[in-house]
Fold each of these.
Amino acid sequence: MILYYFIASILIIAGALLSRNKTLTALLAGGFIAGQAVFTAYMLDNRNLTELGYFTFDSTAIILMILLSVLSIATFYHGLVYLKDEQTENFNIYHAGFIALIASITGVYLANNIMVTWIFLEATTLSVAALIYHHRTIRTLEATWKYVFICSTGIALAYVGILLLGISIKGVPGADLSYQSLTHTVVHTDPVYLKLAFIFLLIGFSAKMEVFPLYTIGIDANYVAPAPVSAFISTALVNAGFCAIFRVFKIFTNSAVASWTNGVLIITGLISLLIVAGYMQRVKNFKRLFAYSTVENMGLVLLAIGMGGIGYYAAFLHIVLHSLTKSSLFYQMGQAHKILQTYKIFKTGSYLKLYPVGALVLLLGLIVITAIPPSGMFVSEVLIFKSMFAGNNWWIFIVTALLLCFVIYGMSTKVLLMIFTPLEKEIQHPVKVNPFQSMSQYILLGVVIWFCFSQPAFLVELLTDAAKIVK
């Protein structure tokens, strides 16, 4: 099935690029999105099945694939709205890049071998570059080259980490670079090699997860990309980075450096939060504001993993809820830009008056993303704090709570300014947006709120299994 999936992806990408008709391209892309959902359903019916030797349908992959299918459908719809007046060539390139990105992310989620993960992560770099450069301006060209260069540098560093892992298991009978094999073989290897390998892998994959130290490239990419693409980069692609880092982390949980890797993740998470707490106060663009929010939330995820115990479950739950929330905010910003004609924070205002339906989405999204009840993210953050209490890490809790206060203040003041503050200069002939375009945001945010009160049993089972660390 996975072979058919990748073959179909390549053929549809080629068809989109060769098409001379926007309707045909849209049908091809829509067919691919539908096929993605069918493939995800197939995975649910064949849990833990391995295909082609390198791809396994485990619980981690299934959770992320369900999210990917949901986000693909929503992003495809908002992309069609965003590209309504685009030329055929740009329309085709956009959808070809979008399909390639989805297929590449799928490869990352399903890979059971660290080299296969590495290959597909590099493929995501090339795929998303076409989407970042969509507007064909000097600014998008600069951001695209920066993204390709820094991500490629990160991938190169990750490759050094893989080489160090390979050296550390050299001579072990039957050892290979599959995650299962590495988990058993690193127990008997030199801790120095393991520490160096983990550092290189974490730095390399941080560009995709958007955490310290290579988080900056994700901020720039979100800033210049079309709003639907920004939504996808900050969720599905970031989840690919999380998947890579979590699978690498699991390799080391039985090794001599297990507690050390926990400490590294905690420090990385705290630094990510510290950076966001500072930048959130002075950021001047809404897309950058929400991009920094992604760095904050991924920092919390790293803290959860570093804490261990219930933190593993909290990390996966937070990933799910963040994906639904952050995509909603970026979709809404695409509509806000049509009306306000800018992303600049201090040139916006009166959004409640100009587009009440969209203003309510932003207000609801603000409550949800800052984990204020009835946000489901309140539950995941409480579980993260609980994991800190379980390990008597009170100083980490205090620092995290203080940094989150700064983040919440910075985000709230800016979003509320946009919604309620009167515009200094009235917009001449404001664009009208169909309220139906905000329906997807209400649905996604509604699911996150629902999760505050109840979580489906099948999802709880998947999250529990994905968070399981074999000792």
Note: The mean pLDDT is 95.
Amino acid sequence: MSKFKKKAAVKQEIPTSSMPDVVFMLLFFFMVTTVLRETSINVKQHLPEATQLKKLARKSLVAYMYIGEPKKNR
């Protein structure tokens, strides 16, 4: 007979009841903090249709210029 008793294997499960709350809090946080457009476009635009695509080497080389007839303020 041994002096020490063996401990029973204890199962520890992760509670998942609050997981939807955490997911919705994260979703709400990112929806509130995301910036959709930094500038407002004040010119009329006529966008051409693309016929070919080419991948850019670095996206940092892209600059946005809005050229066109000014929109009338209402």
Note: Helices lie at 19-33.
Amino acid sequence: MKTRVLLTGATGTVGYNTLLNLINQKNLDITVFDLKTPHARKKLKPFKDRVNIIWGDISNKDHLIPATVDQDIVLHLAAIIPPAADNYPPLAYKVNVLGTKNLVDLLEILSPNAHIIHASSVAVYGDRIKNPWIKTTDPVQESPGDIYARTKIIAEKLITSSRLTWTIFRLNAVFGIGNHKISKLLFHMPLSTPIEIITPQDAGRAFAYAINHLDKLGGRIFNLAGGEKCRIIYKDFLERSFELFGLGKLNFPPDAFARQNFHCGYYVDSHELIDILNFNQDTIETYFEKVAKGISPMQRLFTRMFHRIIKASLLKKSEPLRALKKKDSRLIRHFFGNHNNLNSINTSG
């Protein structure tokens, strides 16, 4: 008898890699629930004969009913993530909170014996600049104004207070080829932030492999990241990235970057999930190797030729720097706290 698995958010970066790993496993009856868009239809078309595809809006309980009948395992990855979550808070609540509530409510009725594995985030730990070593027993407290983190904290409570068997994976920084577009978030993270990345490929393996280790996962929260070999300081990460893409030195004004109120850090206990699932194949070095291979010589040449214009355009996205120029005291306190020595350098590099 096949194990029935429901995957939400299959067209997202991690969700898609989860699906790629699920379809390689035997004796699974896979159902995918996703919002019907041209992008989603194109992405799922190759799997239409291998999985059951149910289209719908997760915030509409009626749409979810067909997907939640008699499921054994639910991998819940559907979410609105930053920067969209910051730009459209009502949508973030609609999908991340109401969508999770709808899913839990229906599973309790239609699949009461299901095991749900929920994708949460390092954002729930809030600003950890002063104490960057994170473990799952640390208190959750979103950074001020972090809508995404707030929705994830609420969603976690919905999961843990349910009558279902549950597991929560709190993903750290997910970095992969093409999965991050340049946005204002580039400047929200303080340069001194320690980050422990995980690639979409490793994250997808973790969720897919988890269905074979449910006895070790039930009723537990895990920190999901790549381990010691995936750790780097944000400033170093940007410097290496800029060099690879042909942008030259990271010589933005120091005050272009916030000093507080973001998230990320090193997971003290990321090894616990790695030891159980043995999913990690990437390191920070293999990540940069893949990035380098994905950049064509023409692309790098073009970037080098126009690096000043490109960096000037990027700098315009800096909300911390804009707050200083406009002397917006509220945003200055948000991004810099009580910092009294803000001497920006007027150059775009």
Note: Confidence is low (pLDDT under 50) at residues 344-349.
Amino acid sequence: MAGLLLMYARKQLDFSFRDLLAAVCFTFQPGLKRESLNAQLQQMWSREDEAVVALSVRTAFDAFLSALALPKGSEVVMTGINIPDMVTLVRHHGLVVVPVDLEIPTLQVRLDVLRRAITPRTRLIVVAHLYGARMDMAPVFEAVADRPDIHVVEDCAQAFRGCADYLGDPRSGISLYSFGAIKTATAFGGAMARVCCPTLRQAVRDRLAGYPAQGRWQFFKRAVKYAVLKAVTQPVLYGLLVKLCNLAGGNHDEWLIAAVRNFKGGDLPARIRQQPALPQLALLRRRLGQVRNGYLNTRIAAGDFVSAQLREVLEIPGAGNASNTYWLFPVCSAEKDKIVTVLRERGFDATCSSTQLRAIRSEQEIAGPPSQCMACIDSTVYLPVYGQMPQRELERLVAALKEVCPTGAAASRPRAELNEQAVEFGEAVR
């Protein structure tokens, strides 16, 4: 019955209708001042005055690259699963991308692999914390211990746990956090960054302050769009939407991806070099001030339950990472199309294509191709696993997956090999 009437969307938007009402009120609220809002956000983020407010992670990263003004042809080591726009920005600044592989069970970078990727031309390491898991940064800083000319960038867009939690390693050049549409504590956009070097921080702030500001009407339209998305991703309406798309010969996957993507088409630097609208800054202030552990705890509990049930059946990226908050829940399988089909028939909107994360390829694969990252992305299915799902539905999801992969034969690699890799990684970082 549930499969006929309900469809659980692959992702729930993390805002309430009270947040939506607040966003609308901020749109029409007079007297909002950019300087005051920026100062309040910076104080909420860091009492040491290390915070920077930006339109997006891409915006802050681009401004940081501009402030560094690295020599053309300098190499940027990047973790092998990343957002293509981040690669585009690196190349826009005349820099060369060097991907490094990850250990998929832990979503960690290995010290030996990182050391092989670093050359005399390396000037930057960009580390992406993936799927809600947080990478141990110790191997990264050990690899650059004798290279003070190398800056470290932490992309923590998927790993936010509240202002009182981890906000980036103080040794990092910049730590980036996103509050875009599908992120934890979304403000329909906006980003916060931590830049510990005063000179670089001021250079980034000055550059961002020179950008044109988005208008209130643009923010209002975005808020209305996400209100509609919030409504239609409730199980009954979402099931109806999927069925109507199928009857019309359309693709709900493509519609959903287009709806949540903030930067579409055109020249990327021109699109991101803007300041947030005033009501967006006010909404971000509200969201940062109301982050509580309850929402994350229910999401973590749901992820832990499904992970414990499936880890002997499917490879789960990040299952061996102790800090995983399950912002997304990926599994890897050679039978990914079959899994998607079966789960959608049972009322779970699994997908292979609704994320912007990609495996990076480059002409400069100094440490070898990121083969584990490529295999992971090629075989990944994203499951709807979040705290709002009733326990009985999580159990039904697990049962359906065990029917498709009863012996673990659908996993992209043998479990013994994954365990061996995890042991090797543990030895490498000790």
Note: The first strand starts at residue 51 and ends at 54.
